[in-house]
Amino acid sequence: MAKEYDVVILGGGTGGYVAAIRAAQLGLKTAIVEKNKLGGTCLHAGCIPTKALLRSAEVYVQSKKALDFGIEVQGVTLQFDRIQQRKEQVVNQLYKGVQHLMKKGKIDVFGGYGRILGPSIFSPMPGTISVEMSDGSENEMLIPKNVIIATGSRPRHLAGLKVDGEKVFTSDEFLTLEQLPKSVVIIGGGVIGVEWASMLIDFEVDVTILEAGNRLIPTEDEAISDEMYKQLTKRGVSIHFNVQLDPSTVQVAEQVSIPLEGNTIEAQAVLLSVGRVANTENIGIENTEIELENGSILVNESFQTKESHIYAIGDVIGGMQLAHVASHEGIRAVEHIVGTHLMPIEYAKIARGVYSSPEVASVGLTEAQAHQQGYQVTTATFPFKAIGKAIVYGESEGFVKVIVDELSNDVIGVHLIGPHATDLISEAALGLFLNASPWEFGQMVHLHPSLSEVIGEAALAIEGKAIHF
Question: CA-CA 20 to 30 A from 11: which of 23, 45, 170, 381?
């Protein structure tokens, strides 16, 4: 028997389940179709498990440095099986929390693979969802007034280099390792590649990064990229730029062999970190008028597709491909469904982060982007080494860079690399959201001692008024 809903959401990841919660709050009868587990990539194969592993790496390194703080710790050993157990405990705890939220919101969850049908006996418009149930039971037919596609993305592969989960991995397979390899070549020096490089070098794995471009994390400000290169190489990561890799030349045997500039790099494993691909296949797009561009679904500023009752959010529409972005896109889509008209999301004012050591976080434009968009800018940097709390904390490498539009005197970019950057960036993001000036950042009285003082000092430095440097 077909079931009717106000909203059916394809995909129960961070974007999908948050959209479902908001829909339920607004009184909409809501269902989610999820082929695997609620929480999606972020909870099970991305944000959360990688951060759990990064935290273990951080604790391991701190334990080895304990004597610097006057504490003698003997017999520090890395037990990777227990690290993996803790990661799973973290994921399971949060997974149970998401399940509870679904029950609390009276949201129906269908475990299975959903496909959009075209016009049929169920509806004259495309949008009926046929769910192939994971438990083998008869297909469910869901008839929604609105559909939200939130099917996410998956790691991109390289043609000619087979991912086997034994020698060649993506981040998905790497998260389930039972034993660390002694050496790894990471292909790609973007956010994911840098996070894994940082983690693995802390776990005492020999790490090499091969990057096709001329710098690490190319979406970040060039000064941040340069500092990350300096810090990772200082810790022992070998980094090669402008690498034009031919996957067919990679030899996979007992060791993986990669020819490079007349030499051969050998490692026990290769980790592909070359971007992500939107999951648009086999979900019934062909049964609709929905349009794709470069493999991603085209939407308007309200996240409607060409079929106005079918919305799409998150990684499947391309864009920033961040969990918190997908969540807010989901909320906006649902609120548009009920007739709430909100201002479009200003993506340039959304914070982003790299959870490596050191951490990176930024919001707004890089200096290069500002110049490309025609801004005349003033910039200033302020180092963590001039902040008392950073000295106390024992992590004083890195800096903050502030970019200001000379015409409006608004801060249009803030970029951090250093301790707890991903926590500190929210202040800067709020400042950009409110179109704050450097003076307003600088006049805010920051707690002392605190790492947050670095943002106020950097803002004051725009006019040469920084106090501690």
Answer: 170
Same domain for 371 and 447, yes or no, is yes
User: Residue 437 sits in a domain of what CATH number?
Assistant: 3.30.390.30
Q: Are residue 112 and residue 211 in the same domain, yes or no?
A: no
Is 344 part of a structural domain of the chain? no
Q: How far is CA 333 from CA 178, 277, 304, in A?
A: 40, 22, 8
From CA 145, how far away is CA 147, in angstroms rounded?
7
> No. of H helices and E strands in the chain?
13, 23
**Stretch 374-387: mean pLDDT:** 97
pTM for the full model? Answer: 0.95
In 3D space, the residue among 358, 318, 48 whose CA is nearest the CA of residue 224 turns out to be 358
Containing domain of residue 252, as a range?
157-274
What's the total number of domains in the chain? 3
64, burial (CB in 10 Å: exposed 0-12, middle 13-18, buried 19+) = middle
Distance CA 214, CA 218 (A): 8
Catalytic residue numbers read: 448
> pLDDT tens-digit profile of 158-208?
998 999 999 999 999 999 999 999 999 999 999 999 999 999 999 999 999
Which residues fall within 8 angstroms of residue 115, CB to CB, at 6 or more apart?
129, 130, 132, 282, 283, 284
DSSP per position, 247-280: GGG-EESSSEEEEETTEEEEESEEEE-S-EEE--
165 and 190 share a domain? yes
In the predicted model, is pLDDT for residue 284 greater than 90? Answer: yes
Residues 6+ apart with CB under 8 A from 45: 171, 172, 175
At 234-278, the pLDDT tens digits run 999 999 999 999 999 999 999 999 998 888 999 999 999 999 999
Those residues whose C-beta lies under 8 Å from the C-beta of residue 77, and which sit 6 or more positions away, are none
